[in-house]
Amino acid sequence: MENQYNIEYLQAEEILQLMKVEEVIFLDIRNVEEYKVEHIKGAVCIPILELEKKESNLLDKNKKIVVYCNYGIRSKVGCEILKRKGYKTINMQGGILKWKGALEN
Q1: Cβ neighbours of 77 (radius 10 Å)
Q2: φ/ψ of residue 49, rounded to 5
Q3: Is-catalytic flag, 45?
């Protein structure tokens, strides 16, 4: 599913399937305290408030970036910011909460 900003939306289960054929980067845009409580293994943390002003060399423009937060609302804004900077993004619907559920199934 895509919207007017050309942002791709995928469910956690779909991202798990994508990972079988393609390497992705997980970007956690929650604040550092939330990241420290729990995060997806290997995820890069760049809080949403820093994303606009920070030109991140941590992210590879040749790979899809799966952006997530708790539920998927902040990650939508994060995807828009990264799209303007030339990145390929996926907004993980349902955020880290859905990710944990997908791993349990």
Answers
A1: 16
A2: -70, -20
A3: no
Catalytic member of 7, 69, 81, 96: 69
**Hey, what CATH topology would domain 8-104 get?**
Oxidized Rhodanese; domain 1 (3.40.250)
Domain boundaries, the chain: 8-104
CB 74 within 8 A of CB 80: no
Q: Which amino acid is at 50?
A: E
pTM of the model: 0.90
Task: Assess contact for 44 and 28: CB atoms under 8 A.
Answer: yes
| Two structure tokens written together for 69 | 């937060």
Per-residue pLDDT of the chain (105 residues; tens, 9 = 90+): 445 668 999 999 999 999 999 999 999 999 999 999 999 999 999 999 898 877 666 688 899 999 999 988 899 999 999 998 889 999 999 999 888 777 765
Encoded tokens for 72: 């998927």
